[in-house]
Model the fold of this input.
Amino acid sequence: MTDPVLRMRDITMRFHGVTALSDVSLEVERGEVHAICGENGAGKSTLMKILSGVHPAGSFDGAIEIDGRPAAFRSLGDSEREGVVIIHQELALVPSLSIAENLRLGNEITRRGLIDWDRTMTSAADLLERVGLPQNPATKVLELGVGQQQLVEIAKALAKDVKILILDEPTAALNDADSERLLSLIERFRDQGITCILISHKLREVLRVADRITVLRDGATVETMRRDDPETGEGRIIRAMVGRDLDSLFPPRDPDIGDELFRVEHWSIAHPADPDRLVVDDASLTLRAGEIVGLAGLMGAGRTELAMSIFGRSYGRWVSGTAYKRGREVDLRTVERAIRSGVAYATEDRKQYGLNLIGDIQVNVSASALTRLARLGLLDLVRERKVADAYRYKMNIKAPSVRAVTGSLSGGNQQKVVLAKWMFTNPDVLILDEPTRGIDVGAKYEIYGIINELAAQGKAILVISSELPEVIGLSDRIYALSAGRITGELAREDVTQERLMRLMTAGA
Ligand SMILES: Nc1ncnc2c1ncn2[C@@H]1O[C@H](COP(=O)(O)OP(=O)(O)OP(=O)(O)O)[C@@H](O)[C@H]1O
Ligand SMILES: [Mg+2]
Done:
Protein backbone atom coordinates (compact mmCIF):
# COMPACT_ATOMS: atom_id res chain seq x y z
CA MET A 1 0.00 0.00 0.00
CA THR A 2 2.39 2.65 -1.14
CA ASP A 3 1.52 6.10 -2.29
CA PRO A 4 4.73 7.82 -3.27
CA VAL A 5 4.51 11.58 -3.60
CA LEU A 6 8.06 11.69 -4.94
CA ARG A 7 10.29 9.40 -6.94
CA MET A 8 13.83 10.32 -7.91
CA ARG A 9 15.45 7.74 -10.11
CA ASP A 10 19.06 7.15 -11.10
CA ILE A 11 20.16 10.67 -10.40
CA THR A 12 23.73 11.37 -11.44
CA MET A 13 25.33 14.77 -10.98
CA ARG A 14 28.84 15.88 -11.86
CA PHE A 15 30.58 19.16 -11.09
CA HIS A 16 33.50 19.75 -13.43
CA GLY A 17 34.26 16.08 -13.63
CA VAL A 18 33.72 15.41 -9.90
CA THR A 19 30.82 13.03 -9.39
CA ALA A 20 28.69 14.26 -6.51
CA LEU A 21 25.88 11.77 -7.04
CA SER A 22 25.80 8.56 -8.97
CA ASP A 23 22.61 6.68 -9.73
CA VAL A 24 20.87 7.80 -6.58
CA SER A 25 17.24 6.79 -6.16
CA LEU A 26 14.85 8.06 -3.53
CA GLU A 27 11.20 7.31 -2.99
CA VAL A 28 9.17 9.35 -0.53
CA GLU A 29 5.69 8.38 0.67
CA ARG A 30 2.95 10.95 0.88
CA GLY A 31 2.75 12.46 4.35
CA GLU A 32 5.85 10.80 5.76
CA VAL A 33 8.89 12.35 7.34
CA HIS A 34 11.80 11.02 5.36
CA ALA A 35 15.28 11.65 6.71
CA ILE A 36 18.44 11.71 4.63
CA CYS A 37 21.66 10.96 6.46
CA GLY A 38 25.24 10.77 5.33
CA GLU A 39 28.70 12.13 5.96
CA ASN A 40 29.76 15.65 4.99
CA GLY A 41 30.01 15.75 1.24
CA ALA A 42 27.92 12.60 0.74
CA GLY A 43 25.61 14.48 -1.61
CA LYS A 44 22.54 15.19 0.55
CA SER A 45 22.21 18.89 -0.22
CA THR A 46 23.00 18.33 -3.88
CA LEU A 47 20.17 15.81 -4.17
CA MET A 48 17.75 18.28 -2.61
CA LYS A 49 18.97 21.12 -4.83
CA ILE A 50 18.18 18.91 -7.80
CA LEU A 51 14.73 18.21 -6.45
CA SER A 52 14.02 21.89 -5.92
CA GLY A 53 15.29 23.13 -9.27
CA VAL A 54 18.35 24.94 -7.90
CA HIS A 55 20.29 22.61 -10.16
CA PRO A 56 17.99 22.81 -13.18
CA ALA A 57 16.73 19.96 -15.31
CA GLY A 58 19.40 19.13 -17.84
CA SER A 59 22.30 19.70 -15.47
CA PHE A 60 21.95 16.13 -14.14
CA ASP A 61 20.93 12.72 -15.41
CA GLY A 62 17.96 10.77 -14.12
CA ALA A 63 14.28 11.36 -13.60
CA ILE A 64 12.02 13.00 -11.05
CA GLU A 65 8.34 12.22 -10.62
CA ILE A 66 5.98 14.12 -8.38
CA ASP A 67 2.54 12.61 -7.83
CA GLY A 68 3.37 10.19 -10.61
CA ARG A 69 4.02 12.94 -13.13
CA PRO A 70 7.45 13.69 -14.55
CA ALA A 71 8.89 16.93 -13.26
CA ALA A 72 11.53 19.04 -14.96
CA PHE A 73 12.21 22.12 -12.87
CA ARG A 74 14.32 24.86 -14.29
CA SER A 75 14.31 27.07 -11.22
CA LEU A 76 13.26 27.34 -7.61
CA GLY A 77 10.11 29.10 -8.76
CA ASP A 78 9.19 26.11 -10.93
CA SER A 79 9.43 23.65 -8.07
CA GLU A 80 7.58 25.97 -5.69
CA ARG A 81 4.64 26.09 -8.07
CA GLU A 82 4.49 22.29 -7.65
CA GLY A 83 4.56 22.67 -3.88
CA VAL A 84 8.20 21.76 -3.34
CA VAL A 85 9.79 24.20 -0.90
CA ILE A 86 13.37 23.97 0.30
CA ILE A 87 14.87 25.59 3.35
CA HIS A 88 18.56 25.68 2.76
CA GLN A 89 21.35 24.78 5.07
CA GLU A 90 22.53 28.39 4.85
CA LEU A 91 19.64 30.66 5.76
CA ALA A 92 18.64 33.13 3.11
CA LEU A 93 16.75 35.90 4.88
CA VAL A 94 17.46 39.58 4.32
CA PRO A 95 18.65 40.83 7.72
CA SER A 96 17.77 44.48 7.19
CA LEU A 97 14.14 43.73 6.35
CA SER A 98 11.37 42.96 8.79
CA ILE A 99 9.99 39.49 9.42
CA ALA A 100 6.82 40.36 7.50
CA GLU A 101 8.78 41.62 4.50
CA ASN A 102 10.96 38.53 4.48
CA LEU A 103 7.95 36.24 4.68
CA ARG A 104 6.52 37.75 1.54
CA LEU A 105 9.66 38.40 -0.44
CA GLY A 106 8.95 37.31 -4.01
CA ASN A 107 5.45 36.31 -2.91
CA GLU A 108 4.01 39.73 -2.07
CA ILE A 109 0.38 40.35 -1.17
CA THR A 110 -0.73 43.23 -3.37
CA ARG A 111 -3.80 45.35 -3.88
CA ARG A 112 -4.09 47.42 -7.04
CA GLY A 113 -0.41 46.87 -7.71
CA LEU A 114 0.71 48.04 -4.29
CA ILE A 115 1.80 45.96 -1.35
CA ASP A 116 -1.15 45.48 0.97
CA TRP A 117 0.53 46.09 4.31
CA ASP A 118 -2.50 45.32 6.46
CA ARG A 119 -2.90 41.88 5.02
CA THR A 120 0.86 41.34 4.90
CA MET A 121 1.05 42.03 8.64
CA THR A 122 -1.97 39.93 9.62
CA SER A 123 -0.86 37.03 7.48
CA ALA A 124 2.63 37.32 8.96
CA ALA A 125 1.19 37.22 12.46
CA ASP A 126 -0.78 34.08 11.52
CA LEU A 127 2.25 32.38 10.05
CA LEU A 128 4.39 33.23 13.07
CA GLU A 129 1.74 31.74 15.29
CA ARG A 130 1.71 28.54 13.20
CA VAL A 131 5.43 28.09 13.77
CA GLY A 132 5.24 29.19 17.39
CA LEU A 133 7.37 32.31 17.18
CA PRO A 134 6.05 35.05 19.44
CA GLN A 135 7.54 38.01 17.61
CA ASN A 136 6.17 41.18 16.17
CA PRO A 137 6.11 40.86 12.35
CA ALA A 138 7.64 44.34 12.12
CA THR A 139 10.80 43.19 13.92
CA LYS A 140 13.87 43.28 11.73
CA VAL A 141 15.40 39.89 11.03
CA LEU A 142 18.84 41.08 12.15
CA GLU A 143 17.47 41.36 15.67
CA LEU A 144 16.61 37.66 15.76
CA GLY A 145 18.87 34.83 16.80
CA VAL A 146 19.68 32.05 14.34
CA GLY A 147 17.07 29.80 15.90
CA GLN A 148 14.32 32.32 15.44
CA GLN A 149 15.45 33.03 11.89
CA GLN A 150 15.02 29.33 11.22
CA LEU A 151 11.40 29.56 12.30
CA VAL A 152 10.91 32.56 10.02
CA GLU A 153 12.25 30.46 7.13
CA ILE A 154 9.69 27.79 7.90
CA ALA A 155 6.91 30.34 8.18
CA LYS A 156 8.03 31.58 4.78
CA ALA A 157 7.61 28.08 3.36
CA LEU A 158 4.12 27.90 4.81
CA ALA A 159 3.25 31.17 3.10
CA LYS A 160 3.61 29.25 -0.13
CA ASP A 161 1.38 26.28 -0.72
CA VAL A 162 3.71 23.55 0.40
CA LYS A 163 3.31 19.86 -0.43
CA ILE A 164 6.89 18.68 0.09
CA LEU A 165 8.92 20.62 2.63
CA ILE A 166 12.65 20.06 2.46
CA LEU A 167 14.62 21.00 5.56
CA ASP A 168 18.38 20.91 5.18
CA GLU A 169 19.82 20.67 8.69
CA PRO A 170 17.16 22.85 10.28
CA THR A 171 18.24 22.24 13.86
CA ALA A 172 21.98 22.56 13.32
CA ALA A 173 21.97 25.98 14.93
CA LEU A 174 19.27 25.37 17.51
CA ASN A 175 19.54 24.47 21.17
CA ASP A 176 17.69 21.49 22.62
CA ALA A 177 14.51 23.33 23.53
CA ASP A 178 14.21 25.02 20.13
CA SER A 179 15.07 21.83 18.29
CA GLU A 180 12.35 20.08 20.24
CA ARG A 181 9.89 22.76 19.24
CA LEU A 182 10.88 22.41 15.60
CA LEU A 183 10.57 18.64 15.66
CA SER A 184 7.07 18.89 17.09
CA LEU A 185 6.29 21.35 14.35
CA ILE A 186 7.43 18.81 11.74
CA GLU A 187 5.19 16.21 13.37
CA ARG A 188 2.31 18.63 13.25
CA PHE A 189 2.95 19.21 9.53
CA ARG A 190 2.88 15.46 9.00
CA ASP A 191 -0.56 15.35 10.62
CA GLN A 192 -1.64 18.06 8.18
CA GLY A 193 -0.50 15.90 5.29
CA ILE A 194 2.67 17.82 4.44
CA THR A 195 5.52 15.55 3.41
CA CYS A 196 8.86 16.45 4.97
CA ILE A 197 12.32 15.57 3.83
CA LEU A 198 14.76 16.19 6.64
CA ILE A 199 18.52 16.27 6.37
CA SER A 200 20.21 16.06 9.74
CA HIS A 201 23.41 14.98 11.41
CA LYS A 202 21.63 14.66 14.72
CA LEU A 203 20.72 11.02 14.71
CA ARG A 204 18.73 11.19 17.90
CA GLU A 205 16.26 13.59 16.33
CA VAL A 206 16.21 11.63 13.08
CA LEU A 207 15.14 8.59 15.06
CA ARG A 208 12.57 10.63 16.88
CA VAL A 209 10.68 12.09 13.90
CA ALA A 210 11.53 10.17 10.75
CA ASP A 211 9.31 7.38 9.45
CA ARG A 212 12.03 6.25 7.09
CA ILE A 213 15.70 7.05 6.69
CA THR A 214 17.76 6.93 3.54
CA VAL A 215 21.53 6.89 3.93
CA LEU A 216 23.88 8.23 1.28
CA ARG A 217 27.57 7.49 1.16
CA ASP A 218 30.00 9.02 -1.34
CA GLY A 219 27.21 10.04 -3.65
CA ALA A 220 25.40 6.70 -3.71
CA THR A 221 22.37 5.32 -1.91
CA VAL A 222 23.35 2.81 0.76
CA GLU A 223 19.92 1.84 2.03
CA THR A 224 16.52 3.04 3.15
CA MET A 225 15.40 1.82 6.55
CA ARG A 226 12.13 2.07 8.43
CA ARG A 227 12.27 3.54 11.87
CA ASP A 228 9.86 0.95 13.26
CA ASP A 229 12.17 -1.82 12.13
CA PRO A 230 13.62 -3.14 15.43
CA GLU A 231 17.11 -3.19 13.91
CA THR A 232 17.05 0.54 13.16
CA GLY A 233 19.06 2.60 15.62
CA GLU A 234 21.96 5.04 15.79
CA GLY A 235 24.46 2.24 15.37
CA ARG A 236 22.89 1.03 12.15
CA ILE A 237 22.71 4.52 10.67
CA ILE A 238 26.33 5.28 11.55
CA ARG A 239 27.46 1.98 10.08
CA ALA A 240 25.64 2.75 6.86
CA MET A 241 27.06 6.31 6.80
CA VAL A 242 30.70 5.62 7.49
CA GLY A 243 30.96 1.96 6.61
CA ARG A 244 32.20 0.91 10.05
CA ASP A 245 31.30 1.02 13.74
CA LEU A 246 32.12 3.97 15.95
CA ASP A 247 32.67 2.93 19.55
CA SER A 248 32.89 6.26 21.28
CA LEU A 249 31.90 9.81 20.44
CA PHE A 250 34.86 11.44 22.19
CA PRO A 251 38.51 10.58 21.74
CA PRO A 252 40.41 9.76 24.94
CA ARG A 253 42.17 12.67 26.59
CA ASP A 254 44.59 13.18 29.43
CA PRO A 255 44.35 16.86 30.38
CA ASP A 256 47.50 18.69 31.42
CA ILE A 257 46.33 21.98 32.82
CA GLY A 258 48.80 24.75 33.60
CA ASP A 259 48.65 28.33 34.86
CA GLU A 260 46.13 31.00 34.08
CA LEU A 261 46.54 32.09 30.47
CA PHE A 262 43.62 34.39 29.83
CA ARG A 263 41.11 36.21 31.96
CA VAL A 264 38.36 38.76 31.46
CA GLU A 265 36.95 40.67 34.37
CA HIS A 266 33.72 42.60 34.83
CA TRP A 267 32.95 42.39 31.15
CA SER A 268 29.78 44.24 30.22
CA ILE A 269 28.45 44.85 26.75
CA ALA A 270 25.39 46.79 25.72
CA HIS A 271 23.10 46.00 22.83
CA PRO A 272 24.27 47.84 19.68
CA ALA A 273 20.91 49.54 19.19
CA ASP A 274 19.97 50.00 22.83
CA PRO A 275 22.77 51.28 25.09
CA ASP A 276 20.65 50.71 28.20
CA ARG A 277 20.31 46.99 27.61
CA LEU A 278 23.20 44.84 28.82
CA VAL A 279 23.60 41.74 26.69
CA VAL A 280 26.60 40.67 28.73
CA ASP A 281 26.43 41.77 32.33
CA ASP A 282 29.55 41.81 34.48
CA ALA A 283 30.99 38.52 33.26
CA SER A 284 34.33 37.29 34.54
CA LEU A 285 36.05 34.15 33.38
CA THR A 286 39.45 32.53 33.45
CA LEU A 287 41.09 30.10 31.04
CA ARG A 288 44.19 28.11 31.92
CA ALA A 289 46.84 26.80 29.57
CA GLY A 290 45.92 23.38 28.26
CA GLU A 291 42.38 23.74 29.45
CA ILE A 292 39.20 23.25 27.48
CA VAL A 293 36.47 25.38 29.00
CA GLY A 294 32.84 25.20 27.95
CA LEU A 295 30.43 28.10 27.82
CA ALA A 296 26.88 26.85 28.07
CA GLY A 297 23.71 28.86 27.77
CA LEU A 298 20.34 28.94 26.13
CA MET A 299 19.69 30.80 22.93
CA GLY A 300 19.90 34.50 23.65
CA ALA A 301 21.97 34.04 26.81
CA GLY A 302 24.75 36.11 25.27
CA ARG A 303 27.38 33.45 24.58
CA THR A 304 28.22 34.52 21.03
CA GLU A 305 27.96 38.18 22.00
CA LEU A 306 30.43 37.64 24.83
CA ALA A 307 32.83 35.79 22.54
CA MET A 308 32.56 38.33 19.74
CA SER A 309 33.05 41.26 22.08
CA ILE A 310 36.23 39.66 23.43
CA PHE A 311 37.41 39.22 19.86
CA GLY A 312 38.07 42.84 18.96
CA ARG A 313 34.78 44.20 20.23
CA SER A 314 33.08 42.78 17.15
CA TYR A 315 29.73 42.91 18.85
CA GLY A 316 27.82 45.53 20.78
CA ARG A 317 28.91 48.59 22.71
CA TRP A 318 31.66 47.95 25.14
CA VAL A 319 30.71 49.19 28.60
CA SER A 320 33.34 47.89 30.96
CA GLY A 321 35.82 45.12 31.52
CA THR A 322 39.49 44.27 31.32
CA ALA A 323 41.24 41.37 29.63
CA TYR A 324 44.50 39.85 30.80
CA LYS A 325 46.89 37.45 29.16
CA ARG A 326 49.32 35.73 31.47
CA GLY A 327 48.39 38.31 34.08
CA ARG A 328 49.06 41.39 31.94
CA GLU A 329 46.37 43.57 30.54
CA VAL A 330 45.87 43.14 26.79
CA ASP A 331 44.29 45.44 24.27
CA LEU A 332 41.49 43.70 22.38
CA ARG A 333 39.83 46.79 20.98
CA THR A 334 40.02 45.73 17.34
CA VAL A 335 40.08 42.40 15.56
CA GLU A 336 43.65 43.03 14.41
CA ARG A 337 44.79 43.68 17.98
CA ALA A 338 42.95 40.63 19.23
CA ILE A 339 44.67 38.46 16.64
CA ARG A 340 48.01 40.06 17.46
CA SER A 341 47.39 39.34 21.14
CA GLY A 342 46.96 35.69 20.26
CA VAL A 343 43.18 35.49 20.49
CA ALA A 344 41.17 33.81 17.75
CA TYR A 345 37.47 33.31 17.34
CA ALA A 346 36.07 30.69 14.99
CA THR A 347 32.55 31.77 14.31
CA GLU A 348 29.30 29.87 14.22
CA ASP A 349 28.11 31.78 11.19
CA ARG A 350 30.50 30.81 8.45
CA LYS A 351 28.65 32.68 5.76
CA GLN A 352 28.58 36.07 7.39
CA TYR A 353 31.86 36.26 9.25
CA GLY A 354 33.84 33.14 8.70
CA LEU A 355 34.66 32.60 5.09
CA ASN A 356 35.31 34.13 1.73
CA LEU A 357 33.03 31.83 -0.22
CA ILE A 358 34.28 32.81 -3.65
CA GLY A 359 37.90 32.29 -2.63
CA ASP A 360 39.50 28.85 -2.67
CA ILE A 361 40.39 26.81 0.40
CA GLN A 362 44.00 27.95 0.33
CA VAL A 363 43.11 31.64 0.42
CA ASN A 364 40.70 31.08 3.28
CA VAL A 365 43.07 29.08 5.43
CA SER A 366 45.76 31.75 5.19
CA ALA A 367 43.48 34.79 5.31
CA SER A 368 43.97 35.71 8.95
CA ALA A 369 47.65 34.90 9.20
CA LEU A 370 49.21 36.24 6.03
CA THR A 371 52.25 37.53 7.88
CA ARG A 372 53.14 33.97 8.77
CA LEU A 373 53.45 33.22 5.08
CA ALA A 374 55.34 36.29 3.97
CA ARG A 375 58.90 36.12 2.74
CA LEU A 376 60.68 39.39 2.00
CA GLY A 377 57.31 41.05 2.07
CA LEU A 378 55.79 38.74 -0.49
CA LEU A 379 53.25 36.03 0.05
CA ASP A 380 54.93 32.67 -0.30
CA LEU A 381 52.34 30.86 -2.39
CA VAL A 382 54.16 27.57 -2.34
CA ARG A 383 54.12 27.55 1.44
CA GLU A 384 50.56 28.75 1.50
CA ARG A 385 49.58 25.78 -0.60
CA LYS A 386 51.55 23.39 1.57
CA VAL A 387 49.93 24.68 4.73
CA ALA A 388 46.46 24.46 3.23
CA ASP A 389 47.17 20.96 1.97
CA ALA A 390 48.31 19.91 5.40
CA TYR A 391 45.03 21.10 6.93
CA ARG A 392 42.99 19.53 4.19
CA TYR A 393 44.62 16.23 4.96
CA LYS A 394 44.55 16.57 8.72
CA MET A 395 40.90 17.61 8.87
CA ASN A 396 39.82 15.38 6.05
CA ILE A 397 38.32 18.25 4.06
CA LYS A 398 36.53 16.73 1.13
CA ALA A 399 37.55 18.67 -2.00
CA PRO A 400 39.41 17.88 -5.19
CA SER A 401 42.24 20.25 -4.15
CA VAL A 402 42.93 23.31 -2.01
CA ARG A 403 42.22 25.40 -5.10
CA ALA A 404 38.54 24.39 -4.93
CA VAL A 405 36.21 27.32 -4.36
CA THR A 406 35.06 27.25 -0.75
CA GLY A 407 31.46 28.01 -1.64
CA SER A 408 31.31 24.79 -3.63
CA LEU A 409 32.15 22.63 -0.62
CA SER A 410 29.49 20.87 1.36
CA GLY A 411 28.38 22.67 4.52
CA GLY A 412 30.33 20.51 6.92
CA ASN A 413 33.48 20.84 4.89
CA GLN A 414 33.14 24.63 4.88
CA GLN A 415 33.00 24.46 8.65
CA LYS A 416 36.28 22.54 8.66
CA VAL A 417 37.86 25.31 6.57
CA VAL A 418 36.75 27.86 9.20
CA LEU A 419 38.50 25.84 11.89
CA ALA A 420 41.65 25.43 9.79
CA LYS A 421 41.77 29.17 9.18
CA TRP A 422 41.78 30.05 12.86
CA MET A 423 44.07 27.25 13.85
CA PHE A 424 46.60 28.59 11.40
CA THR A 425 46.74 31.94 13.19
CA ASN A 426 48.33 29.83 15.92
CA PRO A 427 46.46 31.57 18.73
CA ASP A 428 47.12 31.07 22.44
CA VAL A 429 43.46 31.53 23.17
CA LEU A 430 41.01 29.96 20.78
CA ILE A 431 37.31 30.59 21.08
CA LEU A 432 35.26 28.04 19.15
CA ASP A 433 31.64 28.96 18.58
CA GLU A 434 29.61 25.87 17.65
CA PRO A 435 32.67 24.16 16.15
CA THR A 436 30.83 21.05 15.02
CA ARG A 437 27.67 22.61 13.73
CA GLY A 438 26.69 20.70 10.61
CA ILE A 439 29.51 18.19 11.01
CA ASP A 440 28.86 14.47 10.68
CA VAL A 441 29.46 12.07 13.57
CA GLY A 442 32.70 10.68 12.19
CA ALA A 443 34.19 14.08 11.44
CA LYS A 444 33.10 15.34 14.88
CA TYR A 445 35.36 12.78 16.45
CA GLU A 446 38.23 14.06 14.30
CA ILE A 447 37.53 17.65 15.31
CA TYR A 448 37.36 16.76 19.01
CA GLY A 449 40.73 15.10 18.52
CA ILE A 450 42.12 18.30 17.01
CA ILE A 451 40.71 20.37 19.89
CA ASN A 452 42.35 18.01 22.38
CA GLU A 453 45.62 18.30 20.51
CA LEU A 454 45.49 22.11 20.62
CA ALA A 455 44.90 21.94 24.37
CA ALA A 456 47.81 19.53 24.74
CA GLN A 457 49.99 22.17 23.05
CA GLY A 458 49.18 24.48 25.95
CA LYS A 459 46.53 26.63 24.34
CA ALA A 460 43.45 27.73 26.21
CA ILE A 461 40.22 26.87 24.52
CA LEU A 462 36.75 28.20 25.10
CA VAL A 463 34.02 26.12 23.47
CA ILE A 464 30.50 27.36 22.90
CA SER A 465 28.05 24.67 21.96
CA SER A 466 24.32 24.30 22.07
CA GLU A 467 24.65 20.56 22.36
CA LEU A 468 25.00 19.84 26.05
CA PRO A 469 26.48 16.38 25.55
CA GLU A 470 29.19 18.02 23.46
CA VAL A 471 30.05 20.72 26.02
CA ILE A 472 30.04 18.12 28.76
CA GLY A 473 32.05 15.57 26.78
CA LEU A 474 34.74 18.06 25.78
CA SER A 475 35.23 20.45 28.68
CA ASP A 476 37.41 20.37 31.76
CA ARG A 477 35.27 23.08 33.26
CA ILE A 478 32.05 24.79 32.22
CA TYR A 479 30.67 28.26 32.79
CA ALA A 480 26.94 28.70 32.54
CA LEU A 481 25.57 31.91 31.14
CA SER A 482 22.00 33.01 31.65
CA ALA A 483 20.57 36.30 30.45
CA GLY A 484 24.06 37.75 30.04
CA ARG A 485 25.31 36.78 33.49
CA ILE A 486 27.61 33.99 34.48
CA THR A 487 25.47 32.02 36.88
CA GLY A 488 27.94 29.38 37.87
CA GLU A 489 30.88 27.20 37.08
CA LEU A 490 31.15 23.42 37.17
CA ALA A 491 34.26 21.25 37.11
CA ARG A 492 34.24 18.17 34.88
CA GLU A 493 33.72 15.86 37.87
CA ASP A 494 30.67 17.78 39.04
CA VAL A 495 28.85 18.26 35.76
CA THR A 496 25.51 16.70 35.07
CA GLN A 497 23.01 17.82 32.46
CA GLU A 498 20.54 18.69 35.23
CA ARG A 499 22.98 20.85 37.19
CA LEU A 500 24.06 22.63 34.08
CA MET A 501 20.49 23.24 32.95
CA ARG A 502 19.64 24.66 36.35
CA LEU A 503 22.48 27.20 36.06
CA MET A 504 21.62 27.97 32.45
CA THR A 505 18.09 28.91 33.43
CA ALA A 506 18.96 30.60 36.72
CA GLY A 507 17.62 34.10 37.12
CA ALA A 508 15.97 34.01 33.70
N1 LIG B 1 28.35 23.92 -6.93
C1 LIG B 1 29.25 22.95 -6.75
N2 LIG B 1 30.41 22.94 -7.44
C2 LIG B 1 31.34 21.96 -7.27
N3 LIG B 1 31.20 20.94 -6.40
C3 LIG B 1 30.07 20.89 -5.67
C4 LIG B 1 29.04 21.90 -5.81
N4 LIG B 1 28.03 21.58 -4.96
C5 LIG B 1 28.41 20.45 -4.31
N5 LIG B 1 29.63 20.03 -4.75
C6 LIG B 1 30.35 18.82 -4.29
O1 LIG B 1 29.45 17.75 -4.26
C7 LIG B 1 29.68 16.91 -3.11
C8 LIG B 1 28.40 16.76 -2.32
O2 LIG B 1 28.11 17.97 -1.65
P1 LIG B 1 26.81 18.21 -0.80
O3 LIG B 1 26.77 19.65 -0.46
O4 LIG B 1 25.64 17.63 -1.49
O5 LIG B 1 27.13 17.34 0.51
P2 LIG B 1 26.24 17.12 1.82
O6 LIG B 1 25.94 15.67 1.90
O7 LIG B 1 25.10 18.05 1.85
O8 LIG B 1 27.29 17.44 2.98
P3 LIG B 1 27.14 18.28 4.39
O9 LIG B 1 26.66 17.30 5.40
O10 LIG B 1 28.55 18.67 4.69
O11 LIG B 1 26.25 19.43 4.15
C9 LIG B 1 30.81 17.58 -2.35
O12 LIG B 1 32.02 16.93 -2.67
C10 LIG B 1 30.82 19.00 -2.85
O13 LIG B 1 32.09 19.58 -2.78
MG1 LIG C 1 24.65 19.71 3.00
About this structure: The pocket of adenosine-5'-triphosphate (ligand 1) is lined by residues 15, 18, 20, 38, 40-46, 89, 398-399, 408-413, 440 (CB under 6 Å). The chain has two domains: 4-242, 260-504. The chain has a mean pLDDT of 90.
